[in-house]
Amino acid sequence: xxxxxxxxxxxxxxxxxxxxxxxxxxxxxxxxxxxxxxxxxxxxxxxxxxxxxxxxxxxxxxxxxxxxxxxxxxxxxxxxxxxxxxxxxx
Length: 90
Known about the structure:
Low-confidence stretches: 1-8
Oligomer: single chain
Shape: globular
Structural class: alpha+beta
Helix content: 10-25%
CATH topology: Ubiquitin-like (UB roll)
Mean pLDDT: 83
CATH superfamily: Phosphatidylinositol 3-kinase Catalytic Subunit, Chain A, domain 1
Number of helices: 1
Strand order of the largest sheet: 2-1-5-3-4
CATH architecture: Roll
């Protein structure tokens, strides 16, 4: 269930809870444009946690913590993976 914080009607962005597989204390709610490439998402995350873009492997989870997809194509826009109310982990 998406609240206005996750998806604002007509807004081309989404707020995702970001976690890190190696930094257990890292969790942040981050707004991303659905038009951003996966590589741009990784660059934004690099600035928040310090993990290099080349070392990241992004996974998208739903609100039940079930994996939805691997964000493997750096050239695809984030919106290609249809993130709505979810969790991205790297």
